[in-house]
Amino acid sequence: MDRIAEKTQSKHVTVKTVVQQFLDEIVSELAKSNRLEFRDFGVFEVTEMKARVAQNPKTLEPIKVPAKRKVKFKMGRLIKQQLNS
């Protein structure tokens, strides 16, 4: 956040507040199962994981794993370019 404050010539507290509010909005939209696309950066999507039976590696007992939701991120063009250059 220091770099953002420096580049924008803004106060650190202001930058921290704006960034935190942005992240809170992302979490809020994902909680509603909305897809978020940031051009050239990437896409956040909520996926549904089905309930399943797994195995405890220590005791080898079967364990029921409940259904759940998770966030999937697919990186965009800019991240791919930066990682592969």
Summed up:
With 85 residues, this protein is an alpha+beta fold. Helices cover 40% and strands 32% of the residues. It has one domain (2-83): HU Protein, Chain A.
Q: Would you write up a description of this structure?
A:
The model has no long low-confidence stretch (mean pLDDT about 95). The protein has one domain (about 1-85): Irregular (HU Protein, Chain A), CATH 4.10.520.10. The strands form 2 sheets. Strands 1-2-5 form a 3-stranded antiparallel beta sheet. Strands 3-4 form a two-stranded antiparallel sheet. It has helices at about 1-10, 10-30, 75-85, and strands spanning about 35-40, 40-50, 50-55, 60-65, 70-75. It has about 80 residues and is an alpha+beta fold. The chain contains 3 helices and 5 strands, in the order H-H-E-E-E-E-E-H.
Strand order of the largest sheet: 1-2-5
* Structural class computed from helices and strand pairing: alpha+beta
Task: Find the CATH topology.
Answer: HU Protein, Chain A
What is the terminal-to-terminal distance? Answer: 25 Å
Roughly how much helix do the residues carry, as a percent range? Answer: 40-55%
Highest-level CATH class: Few Secondary Structures
How many domains, in number, for the residues?
Answer: 1
CATH superfamily grouping: IHF-like DNA-binding proteins
CATH architecture: Irregular
> What coarse outline follows from CA principal-axis ratios?
elongated
Number of helices: 3
Radius of gyration: 19 Å
- Beta strand count: 5
Strand content: 25-35%
